[in-house]
Known about the structure:
binds magnesium ion; 6 helices; alpha/beta; 28% strand
Amino acid sequence: MTERKIMMDMKQLMLRYPTGKIALSGINLTVEQGQFVYLTGESGAGKSSLLRMFYGGLRPTSGALQVQGWDMRKASEDDIRSLRRRTGVCFQDQRLLFSRTVFENVALPLHIQGWKKQRLIGRVQKVLDYVHLGDRLWSYPEALSGGEQQRIAIARAMMATPPVVLADEPTGNLDEATARHVLDLLMGLNQLGMTVIMATHDLHLLNSHPGRVVQLHAGALVGDSYAV
Ligand SMILES: Nc1ncnc2c1ncn2[C@@H]1O[C@H](COP(=O)(O)OP(=O)(O)OP(=O)(O)O)[C@@H](O)[C@H]1O
Ligand SMILES: [Mg+2]
């Protein structure tokens, strides 16, 4: 058996916001390359806070956090930029840019890496085909349904074939069939080898899409199991 790389490693991880709120405490958790992890817990449990720490949006207050080999307490701004190039994000607070076309939105992660337009078009076409929206390159997001916008966000997250994809409530506000389709797409990325961590309240989706379930409660880790 080949040894799996550790993508995230937490030891007694604690996060306190400047307001004094302790959002996470005593978190000990390891995520290996290639895993599909559901992050669950009540509203306010700390799911989004933890996801933000995985791409350097928030730094640990105390304890240890390693992400893709970087020590997040010591990582420089350059390190964080490198980490972000290796992380696809699909977050509620990083919605699509409504003044830009679907092409421009999806191209963004590689545009900032200096890719030229002709090369970008080929890659954007490929990832949009993957999410079954290959004919919407030149649409504006406002002309798309909520589920379609979510699929565009997944297309953007996979654009640079990152080793890790983080998704925060990607199936929130979607009907059952659309939610399952969005999850199919994320599972597909996982089958391509990407480590996927997804915060969700929709645990009934586990019936059709099994995975590792990590449960938070009031900032503490209270469960970690495989549902099959
Ligand atoms: N920027 C912030 N400043 C201060 N406190 C915050 C901030 N963001 C979140 N919190 C608090 O930290 C705790 C964890 O919030 P977080 O957003 O991580 O929860 P969550 O599990 O994602 O909840 P939800 O399911 O509602 O999205 C909550 O008590 C929240 O009020
Ligand atoms: Mg949240």
